[in-house]
Design brief:
Elements: H1 3-8, H2 12-28, H3 32-44, H4 46-59, H5 64-74, H6 77-89, H7 97-123, H8 154-164, E1 170-175, H9 182-191, H10 193-199, E2 203-209, H11 214-225, H12 235-249, E3 254-261, H13 266-270, E4 279-285, E5 296-297, H14 303-314, H15 326-336, H16 340-350, H17 355-366, H18 375-388, H19 393-401, E6 411-412, H20 413-423, H21 431-442, E7 447-450, E8 466-469, H22 472-482, E9 492-497, H23 513-525, E10 531-532, E11 537-543, E12 553-554, E13 560-566, E14 569-571, E15 584-589, E16 595-598, E17 611-615, E18 617-618, E19 630-634, H24 649-652, E20 658-662, E21 682-686, E22 706-708, E23 730-732, E24 754-756, E25 776-778, H25 781-790, E26 795-797
Parallel strand pairs: 1-4, 1-5, 2-3, 3-4, 9-11, 10-12, 11-13, 13-15, 14-16, 15-17, 16-18, 17-19, 19-20, 20-21, 21-22, 22-23, 23-24, 24-25, 25-26
Antiparallel strand pairs: 6-8, 7-8
Helix pairs in contact: 2-7, 3-5, 3-6, 3-7, 4-5, 6-25, 8-9, 11-12, 14-15, 14-16, 15-17, 16-18, 18-22, 19-21
Length: 810
């Protein structure tokens, strides 16, 4: 098909733009130098090209023009480096005609693609009922990563595949005991080539868990599918919008996986049933639902497969030195009774253990019932694993802390670091915390997930892209450990308030109907005594059904307070005002739209509060927090946070040492008042795409050591006053694609040791960079060419980083 015919099929707004781009590309073929500079320009505009590509796919026109642009951008990097160094080092009056033509061509491309950006903004306007946000390949309802190693699933995988490949509408159910591999099998099914070939991008993976919320699930589905997420007026409205969404994407075959469905959620599953041409629902559950037909039952692993899995997970390989006796392996595997989860955890826990420990494990496993008879049996089995940690009590304590967070949710590593630094006395650079996390990962008690790999991660104490995920049974084990003591004496108190469990304080002895009624009667007759708990860590999970009366609740010993919210509005309970020992506050909203916090002012009475982390919150005006050291704000609305009334932000946060603002869409400018917080040592403003400039007085931060501005794509410049930050040791401006220059005096920052500037190829370097002697520059090949031209003696590193652009989509 000719270029002209291809252009006719494009939307009218794009036709003239792509004609111009094709003309520029055609002219570029006449000059080698022009092609090289053109590639550099297109490399700089790579995020925009990817955005165009996704719009192009959504609108379904031919894609050859986009492919041509991307091909041009990716080609000839070695030649580009030589060309760019040559042009860079020339004075303007010495540039020859060919080079001038190249620069003119590059400018033409930039101006043309600016028009494309304007078109995209029109398409993204509020006047459209639907907004395409780029179609994230990794979203809240995307399929988990394909398991690298599986055994014993082939037969069941084949049966399920044959069923989902049939045309028509059907609901399939996969059942099995906890830890039997249901989620793994469902994931393998979604990654199967034939299944992907049929359903393409219409494979959605939803984790229900024990207390699913319909509105939140529908919000995540809209987000995953790339449509504007509506605000639902009710559950009925959410169901209506869900039907609209599924019918919209259901024009092609659609596979919806509903994972980890509990018995009480059967009516909710019915809400996802719609009549569409080719629509399959796969439900995984520990129990069978007869209304969905005969279930597929996932049985325990055969002994041979179980032994194979045991050896693989334990990393024994060809070495027998870690195995006291192969016969012991056979006995341990038989004791696990084919439970993949039990095998994974036990095999790793036995690594490098003495012979006596293996014997004790065999003896424990040989007693009683099979570990797969029930969840309680598996928990009893895992209890033995925790005994391994008795000599490493800090590891066990940190494992139990994971139970403070909701089921089937990613736990931010940065939140764990905040907790563990204060309550366990770990070092402040996060290295000890990461060592503990890696230990838990190595024992299969948790798994580390890196959402996006950055070159600067090794130097970051925040680990903003690192998360912990945990099997729900292991979370139950952590909670079980925390509930061994009476409620009032527990070290960790986990409160889950929902429509099925509101009066959480009723212990086992008072949960009978008579005792329940008596307790209600006594409330009217006698003023109840305050419920005073001694927990050091308090976790409260709640939704919009919460009507709890906290007036007689006290937690004076709590050092850590975690709120897990599933509600649009929440008011801090008054009992917080008396939590004089509180050091860490973590508030996370698990809905799509930011939650509004009320009663925020009571935090000003907490004199020991040192760390606050807020996620998906509409941050109210920050109150005076005299001793706050670390403030982390993630995916929040920031409109009111730094309002100057009644006092400047530097007065309200006088001792702030670290400020992190990540993925905050409305962060347009950094308040000038922050420049007066003289104790500030780390300033992290990352993935804030609308941030266009920094305050000119940022040089007042005389104690600043770390400045991170990575992925602030609209940031156009850095104020010259940065050159006066003599204590600065690290700057990260990676993916700041609009950054045009570094400050003139940057070379005078003699303490600067690390500079990250991947994807900053058009950022001009001042002559003063020749002063650097001990600086390490981590950048891409094109940026490296600029540095080598001015200061060839520096340590320049070109790392392999994650090249996906999902960071643009938040």
């Amino acid at each position: 098909m000719s270029d002209t015919k291809q252009l006719v099929s494009l939307p009218p707004l794009f036709q003239e733009t792509f004609k111009k781009i094709l003309e520029i590309l055609d002219n570029a073929h006449k000059s080698k130098s022009t092609r090289r500079v053109l590639r550099s320009t297109l490399w700089e505009l790579n995020p925009l090209l990817q955005e165009i590509k996704k719009y192009n796919e959504n609108l379904n026109p031919p894609r050859e023009e986009i492919k041509t642009l991307i091909k041009e951008k990716d080609a000839g990097r070695d030649g580009l480096r030589r060309c760019w160094s040559r042009i860079w080092c020339k004075k303007e009056d010495s540039i020859n005609g060919d080079d001038k033509q190249a620069l003119v061509m590059a400018n033409d491309v930039k101006q043309t693609l600016i028009k494309v950006r304007e078109i995209l903004q029109v398409l993204n306007g509020e006047n459209f009922d639907e907004k395409f946000n780029g179609g994230a390949t990794k979203g809240p309802c995307s399929v988990p990563d394909n398991p690298e190693f599986c055994v014993g699933l082939d037969e069941m995988l084949w049966k399920l595949k044959m069923e989902v490949l049939k045309d028509g509408v059907s609901i399939l159910e996969l059942t099995g005991l906890a830890g039997s591999g249901k989620t793994t099998l469902a994931t393998k099914l979604c990654w199967d080539k034939q299944v992907k070939g049929k359903f393409g991008g219409n494979i959605l993976f939803v984790t229900f868990s024990k207390t699913p919320k319909l509105e939140i699930i529908v919000e995540r589905l809209f987000e995953q599918c790339g449509y504007r997420v509506p605000e639902f007026q009710s559950n009925e409205d959410a169901i209506h919008q869900l039907g609209f969404l599924l019918r919209k994407i259901g024009q092609s075959p659609t596979l919806l996986v509903l994972d980890d469905v509990w018995p009480d959620s059967e009516p909710l599953v019915d809400k996802f049933k719609f009549q569409m041409a080719d629509y399959k629902i796969l439900v995984t559950s520990r129990v069978a639902f007869p209304k969905y037909g005969t279930p597929y039952i996932l049985k325990p692993l055969r002994h041979e497969d179980a032994v194979t899995l045991f050896h693989h997970v334990a990393h024994f390989g060809g070495s027998k030195s870690n195995i006291p006796d192969e016969d012991l392996v056979q006995k341990v595997v038989r004791g696990c009774k084919g439970s993949p989860l039990a095998i994974k955890v036990i095999s790793r826990s036995l690594t490098h253990q003495p012979y006596m420990f293996w014997q004790n494990m065999v003896q424990e496993l040989s007693q009683g019932h099979s570990v797969v008879d029930s969840s309680n049996e598996i928990l009893t089995c895992f209890q033995m694993i925790l005994d391994v940690l008795e000599d490493e009590s800090i590891i066990k304590e940190c494992f139990m802390d994971l139970g403070l967070f909701p089921e089937d949710q990613r736990i931010p590593v940065s939140a764990l670091i905040d907790m563990w630094i204060e309550c366990h006395g770990l070092d402040h650079d996060g290295k000890e915390a990461m060592a503990i996390i890696n230990k838990l990962d190595s024992m299969n008690l948790a798994h580390v997930l890196v959402a996006r790999k950055n070159a600067s991660d090794t130097d970051s104490c925040r680990y903003n892209n690192h998360y912990i995920i945990q099997h729900d049974l292991l979370r139950e084990l952590a909670i079980y450990q925390s509930t061994k003591e009476p409620l009032k004496q527990r070290k960790r108190l986990i409160i889950d308030i929902n429509e099925h469990q509101r009066e959480w304080w009723l212990d086992e002895k008072r949960q009978g109907m008579i005792a329940h009624m008596l307790s209600k009667f006594l409330r009217f007759c006698v003023k109840p005594k305050p419920l005073r708990v001694l927990a050091q860590s308090l976790s409260i999970s709640t939704d919009e059904t919460d009507t709890s009366d906290w007036s007689n609740f006290e937690a004076p010993e709590a050092e850590i307070l975690i709120f897990n919210l599933q509600t649009k509005e929440y008011s801090f309970p008054d009992f917080m005002e008396k939590m004089s020992k509180l050091e860490v506050l973590i508030v996370t909203n698990y809905g799509f739209h930011p939650s509004q916090l009320d009663n925020f002012k009571l935090l000003s009475s907490l004199s020991n509060l040192k760390r606050i982390r807020l996620e998906r919150i509409s941050v109210p005006s920050l109150v005076t927090l005299k001793n706050l050291k670390t403030l982390s704000i993630y995916m929040c609305n920031m409109n009111q946070a730094f309002e100057s009334d009644p006092s400047p932000i530097s007065y309200r946060l006088p001792n702030l040492v670290e400020l992190s603002i990540d993925y905050c869409k409305d962060m347009v400018e950094l308040p000038i008042g922050i420049c007066n917080i003289t104790f500030l040592r780390k300033l992290n403003i990352t993935n804030c795409h609308k941030l266009s400039a920094l305050p000119t007085k940022i040089g007042n931060l005389e104690n600043l050591e770390v400045l991170r501005l990575s992925s602030c794509t609209d940031l156009e410049g850095m104020p010259d006053s940065i050159g006066s930050l003599s204590k600065l040791t690290l700057i990260d401006i990676s993916n700041c694609v609009s950054l045009s220059r570094l400050p003139e005096d940057v070379g005078d920052m003699y303490n600067l040791r690390n500079l990250y500037m991947t994807n900053c190829v058009m950022c001009e370097l001042p002559y003063s960079v020749i002063n650097f002697e001990n600086l390490k520059v981590i950048c891409d090949e094109e940026t490296a060419a600029s540095w080598e031209a001015l200061n060839p003696n520096l340590n320049i590193e070109i790392p392999q980083v994650d090249v996906n652009l999902n960071w643009l989509l938040h």
